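Format notes (please read before filing issues)

Several people have asked whether sequences and structure tokens are stored in separate files. They are not. Every record keeps both together, in the order shown below: the sequence lines, then the token lines. Line labels are part of the format and must not be stripped during preprocessing.
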Amino acid sequence: MNPLLEVRDLVKRYHNRKTGDVSILRGIDVQLRKGETLCVVGESGCGKTTLGKILAGLIPYSGGTYQYHGREVSNLRGADWKKFRTSVQLIHQNPYESLNPSRMIFDILSAPIKRHRPTLDFDALFRETTDLLTMVGLTPVEDFIDKYPVNLSGGQRQRVSIARVLSLRPELIVVDEATSMIDTSLKISLLDTLKRIQDEFGVAYLYITHDLALGRYFAQEQRLAVMYLGQIIETGPTEAVISAPKHPYTRALISAGDMEERVEYDLIGVEIPSFHEIPRGCPLSPRCPEAMKGICYSVEPELLPTSPDRAVACHLYSGPREKNGVR
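Then the structure lines:
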């Protein structure tokens, strides 16, 4: 099966007159097939949201390639661009800011349907809108369809956001910390709704989170990518990465999280380096308790396969260099 999207060596730079260019994403490789889930996990400020916005077409990328259905996204124009923007949708983090407070739920959900299918009559429009509410668990629909966002809880508002995204019948949904502002008791229910939608409609997800436990739950039997300072530093099947982490940063995330596999593993210090002053060599080297003199402080590790379905960017696993005596 051909990939739904494929990203190679993706770069995102921002220009600052005082400090010069700042690279937020550096050499990102991502592949996602129809109906798959890829969970991207890492500390806040590591570039996860920037990656999600690029994949959703909200901001441009500065270098590398991003192909969707085999076509370079930066080259899409006109009807092709509109089709792409409809096919890839983003669920925002904050349900209190993502919905228009002056519009009823019916208007919020029916607006994108009317825009993309203007010939639909009112009866069909009403039926599709109520179907969307049912799909995301807002029932009985009569209790929600004529309400305003202010009348809904945070979890209910986020379900409306999901329904609005589904109204466009997307192939890929970028889920950016969508449960971070919702009560803990409701998070699993919301994730279960998203998983059920995937089972029914074959939607692919890029799930962005700083919570490794939630990422593990949502990406069961799927794939996980760990991000640090704008780079993916470990990737593989979710359970394999969590049960046998290879990168020191991944071990630290598991140690800090609420995980059954939790084993004490601390980095040196808690401060993440600035994107303006990314360390030479391995970006984790100033914080890594296993950093090796010489190579870790001078040579940036590549994301290389350690098995057919796993890869890690760490000199601890760079066999050829060890054999050559560089270690």
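For reference, the curators noted about this record: Confidence is low (pLDDT under 50) at residues 320-327. The CA atoms of residues 243 and 261 lie 7 Å apart.
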